[in-house]
Amino acid sequence: MSNKNPPQDFTGLWVYECPTGMIYETEYISGVENGIYRHKLKSGVVLREGQKVDGLDHGTITLRNNDGNVLVKYEFEYGTGTHFIYTSSGSIGWEIPYKSGLIHGIKRHYISGKVVSEEKYYEGKKI
What we know:
The protein is mainly β. 0% of the residues lie in helices and 64% in strands. The chain contains no helices and 13 strands. Strands 1, 2, 3, 4, 5, 6, 7, 8, 9, 10, 11, 12 and 13 form a 13-stranded antiparallel beta sheet that branches. It is globular, with a radius of gyration of 15 Å.
């Protein structure tokens, strides 16, 4: 599908192919993300997968490299946890803490495994 977001009140699996070739699959109930989501390469390799409950990350999130090998698994509880974003070379690029679905805490940017910047957030607002 060419639309990034589904119609309001959509229920089912929404699939969006980004111009970069990344494929996003997300389950919705009445227009809200609920269920499994996956970010995939055209080759079918799932790079990121997790679950949403009422639009919030909840449960185990799995990140894989371009070959499909698991890089890391981490937990979220109703939108609270820390997201990790890895580069295509498999090294950590970002560490982003969330609380109840909002960025909250110290967001870190890494290059070659070293912290190069930090930004502080409180309930979704940069401070």
